[in-house]
Amino acid sequence: MYSEGVYFENASRHIEDSQYKVDSIKKILIPYLTNNSIELTSYADVGCGSGEIVKLLGKELKLKIKSLKVLKGFDVSPHVEKLSDEIVNFSCEDFTKSTENFDLVTLNDVLEHIPRTASFLSEVGKRAKLIVMHIPLEDCLSVNMRNLQKRKIKDPGHLVFLNINSALNLITTSGLNILDYEYSKGAIKAPSNNKSILQKITYPVKALLLFLNPYIYSKIFGISVIVIAKGTD
């Protein structure tokens, strides 16, 4: 589905949520880099999709980190060969089989599409010093009560359904060292979560619950988590 180009027949698929993901990642990543005096020379977004996240986040990082020179987007889908940007190079390639190493790798809503997730993460860890993951937590009441897994397996191709604990356990068992994590609270304002009338009506109640207790919110409605981990490179 991915390598054949079927999934990204529309190259701008999921592009509407790119800005909120970048904003959410910045809130945890930039302070971590600053507080630990970490310099970056290279950054890759693996499973880059439309390429919008690596473009947006790459520009933000270059403004703050002058040493950052190499920015690259990897995807096995052939649509990336048509993507172009002034500062980002795109490659139609399986990152886990590449010979390149990076100071920073991001995985944005990628893990739920990977059948052998732990081994995939382990291979990514061999090629990255720092890994930032944006992971949907879809093992929740809203999904489970409606048996949405069956639909999500077909479209958008989600094969793995995680909660906060299983997500952290998965990362740890893959051999990576978790350094920090935070719920992606900006998801509640994402365009994809504000399409239907019901979503708009329930927004105030959901926003209050998210503010009071993100964990309970994640168990009922699902959300995403951003995890910073140390690779094995």
Distance between the termini: 30 Å
- Please trace the helix and strand order, writing H or E for each element: HEHEEEHEHHHEHHE
Beta content comes to 15-25%
Question: Approximately how much helix is present in the residues?
Answer: 25-40%
The largest beta-sheet arranges its strands as 3-2-1-4-5-7-6
Give start-end ranges of low-pLDDT stretches.
Answer: none
CATH class: Alpha Beta
Overall 3D geometry? globular
At the third CATH level, what is the topology name?
Rossmann fold
- In DSSP terms (H or I, runs of 4 or more residues), the helix count works out at 8
Corresponding CATH architecture: 3-Layer(aba) Sandwich
Average pLDDT level: 92
Number of strands: 7
What is the count of structural domains? Answer: 1
**Main sheet summary:** 7 strands, mixed
Question: What would you say this structure looks like, in words?
Answer:
- This protein has helices spanning 18-35, 52-64, 117-125, 141-145, 149-154, 164-173, 197-212, 214-220; strands at residues 42-46, 70-75, 89-92, 102-108, 128-137, 177-183, 223-230.
- With 233 residues, it is α/β, with parallel strands linked by helices.
- It has one domain (15-187, 223-230): Rossmann fold, CATH 3.40.50.
- Strands 3-2-1-4-5-7-6 form a 7-stranded mixed sheet, with helices on both faces.
- α1 (18-35) runs parallel beside α2 (52-64) and α7 runs antiparallel to α8.
- The radius of gyration is 17 Å and the shape is globular.
